[in-house]
Amino acid sequence: xxxxxxxxxxxxxxxxxxxxxxxxxxxxxxxxxxxxxxxxxxxxxxxxxxxxxxxxxxxxxxxxxxxxxxxxxxxxxxxxxxxxxxxxxxxxxxxxxxxxxxxxxxxxxxxxxxxxxxxxxxxxxxxxxxxxxxxxxxxxxxxxxxxxxxxxxxxxxxxxxxxxxxxxxxxxxxxxxxxxxxxxxxxxxxxxxxxxxxxxxxxxxxxxxxxxxxxxxxxxxxxxxxxxxxxxxxxxxxxxxxxxxxxxxxxxxxxxxxxxxxxxxxxxxxxxxxxxxxxxxxxxxxxxxxxxxxxxxxxxxxxxxxxxxxxxxxxxxxxxxxxxxxxxxxxxxxxxxxxxxx
Amino acid sequence: xxxxxxxxxxxxxxxxxxxxxxxxxxxxxxxxxxxxxxxxxxxxxxxxxxxxxxxxxxxxxxxxxxxxxxxxxxxxxxxxxxxxxxxxxxxxxxxxxxxxxxxxxxxxxxxxxxxxxxxxxxxxxxxxxxxxxxxxxxxxxxxxxxxxxxxxxxxxxxxxxxxxxxxxxxxxxxxxxxxxxxxxxxxxxxxxxxxxxxxxxxxxxxxxxxxxxxxxxxxxxxxxxxxxxxxxxxxxxxxxxxxxxxxxxxxxxxxxxxxxxxxxxxxxxxxxxxxxxxxxxxxxxxxxxxxxxxxxxxxxxxxxxxxxxxxxxxxxxxxxxxxxxxxxxxxxxxxxxxxxxx
Lengths: 342, 342
Ligand SMILES: Nc1ncnc2c1ncn2[C@@H]1O[C@H](COP(=O)(O)OP(=O)(O)O)[C@@H](O)[C@H]1O
Ligand SMILES: Nc1ncnc2c1ncn2[C@@H]1O[C@H](COP(=O)(O)OP(=O)(O)O)[C@@H](O)[C@H]1O
Ligand SMILES: [Mg+2]
Ligand SMILES: [Mg+2]
Hints:
Strand content of chain A: 15-25%
Oligomer: heterodimer
Number of strands of chain A: 12
CATH architecture of the largest domain in chain A: 3-Layer(aba) Sandwich
CATH topology of the largest domain in chain A: Rossmann fold
CATH superfamily of the largest domain in chain A: P-loop containing nucleotide triphosphate hydrolases
Number of helices of chain A: 13
Shape of chain B: globular
Low-confidence stretches of chain A: 1-15
Mean pLDDT of chain B: 90
Mean pLDDT of chain A: 89
Strand content of chain B: 15-25%
Largest sheet of chain A: 8 strands, mixed
Strand order of the largest sheet of chain B: 6-7-8-3-9-10-11
Radius of gyration of chain B: 21 Å
Structural class of chain B: alpha/beta
Helix content of chain A: 25-40%
Number of strands of chain B: 11
Number of helices of chain B: 10
Shape of chain A: globular
Strand order of the largest sheet of chain A: 6-7-8-3-9-10-12-11
Largest sheet of chain B: 7 strands, mixed
Bound molecules: adenosine-5'-diphosphate, magnesium ion
CATH class of the largest domain in chain A: Alpha Beta
């Protein structure tokens, strides 16, 4: 059984039985000239209202592609979803009509991208783009939409919103542009926000400002948040639970406090061990050997086996299922017990 | 007292801001580097941190004489390299090499790895006579942990981490004494970062190298640096050994920067004091008078607008035997409890 999230304690909470979003056994592949790239190979995760799920993984592990599938913005073709379900409030979005999905996108689920500059239209003013949300979705007049845009800019603390509503994206700093992206995502008060590396391109001081703003708005509006990142520091700061991805699969999921104390997958352990520690100054850092696999040629068995210090024969032949470690944790490792103890 | 291999004195670089297409008129200047002084000691690693745009890369280029200084000096073994040209400059350059951030754009895609690494020998044939080059390049590949048989491959056939190793091999080709590393691991994934950092540490010992290491990841800088300098808007605001800077910072900017770094330990979430700076970094074309940080500083007084604080050991710490007694450019330098980067 690979769906451990069912056992999560949050599901018994006041919000009802179904999680806000649940991805089950999702597969995504890309048909390229060189062959079929298996970018997502059976992803399972879920998030509840008011909860922050961090999706952690190195570049190329399939974090963004999974998010694009959830948002319904995957390029198809070359992309294809051969298998999987994506439940939003209990309804499988992959079975919905294009019209039904369109209604969810933006209004119920919104997305924030890493690169705000390319996500915004360079030739339209920021106020126009924010106002558009209200004109299109709520039929507001131009004047009312502009007022709403100013209100939103205030809310994400852009100084002098009234004076700057007519400015263009390039006239704002990177941090301010990311605030505009957040404002855009928040505009229709969605239930779920997917933030794909929202602060990766920003300096730490700006990152701190943006993350604080995001967390505050999430609390106020009781939204679910999926935060995609490769930064173990950011995860520790804001996440309730975490899903670690490797080669298109979730290799471990757990509440954030538990995973930092005792990881149950050698890949997670390797990532945590490679953080520089004070008592190791001047010594070599722990480094996971080798490189992430080519998605056209994912190793048989466990995809991590060529890099894994614990690999045995079974790891080269059998794909380890994402198996329950406890009520709230799961690991896709044949030797999760040994990893947890070691 | 350690021996200074590079002495940087009052270094200034202003980029002219011009208007007009046919007749260019100077209307101002970007004060990218505006009076920076520090020493680089033989065999040490000096880390340089600060937000993007503060002038780190410009300092690096000035030290390499890739940009001409507006004023100030860079003394290499007592000789001012900013005034050198022709043969004399070429001789000095052999000893100061650079490794760049982006392993994707800094390598010529149409040259083989052998040609890329061997290119410095074209300019300095005295280091490796023609017949000897192939072997030398293969030695270098071996030194940086790449298969010497890869000599005829092209950059696109390598991963990001491997390309950075190629960049390092090229940097080592002329047996330099100093390597300036401008964000050498910023573009790499966590697991690969550790491999490259370890390689650089080994090379430093083996070849007795002095490093200036520019990075925005404060925990990596701490791990490898003997001393750390903090830059803000074209100025060096604080410099000291790693313990002085990370455990006993006295400049408010350093304190804010360190407090913004997310700590990869969820247990620390509750009991951390965060200094969230407001607003953006001012434009280097029009920096604030006096202390440049004053517009964002919670301690600023009238004096900060009129008197530029010098980078020196603050008066109050002059005769104190404390790690707080290090150079800090603040009129009101004092310690403050912040949980800094791990
Ligand atoms: N449109 C596409 N066509 C072909 N391959 C793609 C496309 N989009 C993504 N991929 C591939 O899918 C894999 C996963 O990508 P992605 O989800 O963006 O990784 P991450 O966000 O974890 O860095 C990558 O190898 C990427 O090259
Ligand atoms: N060739 C150039 N012409 C004009 N301005 C420049 C040039 N190079 C850098 N700058 C400006 O100088 C400042 C410092 O840049 P840089 O040294 O690259 O900062 P950092 O490396 O710390 O991010 C920035 O404002 C940048 O825009
Ligand atoms: Mg991505
Ligand atoms: Mg730079």
